[in-house]
Specification:
Blueprint (H helix, E strand, L loop, with lengths): L21 H14 L1 H14 L5 E5 L5 H9 L4 E6 L2 H14 L5 E5 L13 E7 L8 H10 L1 E17 L12 H19 L10 H7 L3 E12 L5 H17 L6 H11 L15 E11 L3
Parallel strand pairs: 1-2, 1-4, 2-3, 4-5
Antiparallel strand pairs: 5-7, 6-7
Helix pairs in contact: 1-8, 2-3, 3-4, 8-9
Length: about 300
């Protein structure tokens, strides 16, 4: 399980019977989470006002640990446990904790959600699940399991939803306008297929505050955070856009019509002046939504 990714860019499946090689994706996941760090820092600053001095923070679906280490830095009195199904990603998380100087308050737990949370030595004061829940077949049951691992007064923070990221203007000057909206539609279809193919998949209305309340939690809050890297994009943002679009070409490109496929190929061609490698109008604009709720005393 790995959470540090944007919208429903699925190739990012999950360990439950899908074909994702998380170790192969590790560098991409790290680079993306590092690019999105300003957004995550704002989210953590908001959580800092919502949560009273957590002693134990659990990052459920931590991936390579970029966010786990941000939690350790934002809450210097807390211990942080990064939980993930990929041993390779957890190894990267431990190495990052060493590099960032938080290793003395940092540990990892390998296993599949939500069952692995039973192995925690203590209940969590803050349990963070960033786009890991939607990789679990029965999301309602998983939320109940998350809630059970909270200490009384503990907070569950769920990052799900938001808006599809935008990287290019509607009219690119090549091909038909609206390419990114059509790619979004293909990604939504792919995401739905991923959900349907998960073991024990159960369809639910994605009203996250209502689902948190149904899990026995109280005081739901919702806040959306923006990442706004305007054009001309810095080099690492441009590299992210190129990688992102390249992954889309691999995963949904066959479902595009010939004109859109040709446009996407031009956007990815480093020798084409109209590509994302050169054009001055590349940007990154994304919105991620966090929902919180509290376990009653």
């Amino acid at each position: 399980m790995a959470h540090e990714h944007d919208h429903h860019e699925h190739p990012h499946g999950h360990a439950h019977g899908t074909d994702i090689d998380w170790a192969e994706m590790a560098a991409y996941l790290e680079a993306e989470a590092e690019l999105f760090t300003p957004l995550y820092e704002r989210a953590l600053a908001w959580l800092g006002k919502e949560v009273t001095e957590p002693g134990l923070i659990v990052d459920a679906g931590s991936g390579p640990g970029v966010l786990s280490c941000l939690f350790a830095e934002a809450f210097p009195g807390a211990r942080v446990v990064a939980v993930d199904g990929s041993a390779e990603l957890l190894e990267r998380a431990r190495a990052r904790a060493e590099r960032t100087g938080v290793a003395d308050r940092f540990s990892t737990l390998a296993g599949e959600l939500p069952e692995v949370l039973q192995e925690l030595d203590y209940p969590a004061d803050l349990l963070w699940a960033s786009r890991s829940l939607h990789h679990l077949g029965d999301q309602r049951a998983a939320l109940a399991a998350f809630a059970e691992r909270l200490a009384p007064g503990g907070t569950l923070a769920l990052l799900e939803g938001g808006l599809p990221a935008r990287h290019l203007p509607r009219d690119l000057g090549i091909g038909r306008p609206g390419l990114q909206a059509r790619l979004d539609a293909l990604l939504e279809d792919r995401f739905q297929r991923m959900r349907e193919e998960l073991p024990g998949s159960v369809s639910v209305t994605e009203d996250w505050p209502a689902l948190l309340t149904a899990a026995g939690l109280k005081h739901t809050r919702t806040r959306t955070f923006l990442l706004d890297l305007p054009a001309p994009a810095p080099d690492r943002a441009r590299a992210h856009v190129a990688t992102f679009l390249g992954r889309l070409r691999e995963t949904v490109g066959e479902h595009l019509d010939a004109e859109d496929r040709a446009t996407l190929d031009r956007l990815l061609d480093p020798d084409d002046p109209a590509s994302v490698h050169h054009r001055p109008d590349v940007f990154v604009l994304a919105a991620h939504t966090v929902h919180t709720a509290v376990r009653p005393y």
